[in-house]
């Protein structure tokens, strides 16, 4: 019998794939909900911290983002950079 994973554990495992993490972050950002995006960043950080050589700094920034009132675009960008991503701005699709 196969052992089942809970949703969060499965998500964190899948986010260890950089392409999966990138798609997840973009989907969260495109949803337009800042809180959802920050949760996505924390989830990607949790996944990345498991494999990152910069574990201590990334873990510290992820905890900082989790605290209420500590939101800063600079901190989000710093964490994404530690995890190998960058925050960019593009044009909305004309529809």
Features of this protein?
0% strand
Overview of this protein structure:
This protein is an all-alpha fold and 95 residues long. The chain is 62% helix and 0% strand. The longest helix is centred in the middle third of the chain and has 16 residues, at 34-49. 19% of the residues are buried. The mean pLDDT is 81.
Task: Briefly characterize the structure.
The protein has 95 residues and is mostly helical. The protein is 62% helix and 0% strand.
How would you summarize the topology of this molecule?
Layout lengths: L6 H8 L3 H13 L3 H16 L5 H12 L6 H10 L13
Helix pairs in contact: 1-3, 2-3, 3-4, 4-5
> Total number of β-strand segments?
0
Distance between the termini: 49 Å
How large is the share of residues in beta strands?
Answer: under 5%
**Average pLDDT:** 81
Quaternary structure state of the chains depicted: single chain
Overall structural class, as computed from helix and strand content, comes to mainly alpha
Order of helices and strands: HHHHH
- What's the story with the biggest beta sheet? none
Residue windows where pLDDT falls under 50 for at least 5 positions: none
The amount of helix comes to 55-70%
Task: Please state the CA-atom Rg, rounded to the nearest Å.
Answer: 14 Å
- Count of separate structural domains: 1
> How many helices?
5
Overall shape: it is: globular
């Amino acid at each position: 019998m196969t052992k089942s994973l809970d949703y969060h554990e499965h998500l964190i495992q899948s986010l260890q794939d950089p392409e999966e993490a990138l798609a997840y972050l973009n989907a969260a950002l495109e949803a337009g909900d800042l809180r959802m995006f920050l949760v996505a960043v924390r989830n990607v950080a949790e996944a990345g911290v498991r494999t990152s050589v910069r574990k201590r700094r990334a873990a510290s920034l992820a905890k900082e983002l989790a605290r209420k009132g500590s939101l800063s675009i600079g901190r989000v960008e710093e964490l994404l950079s530690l995890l190998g991503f960058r925050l960019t701005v593009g044009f909305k699709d004309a529809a």
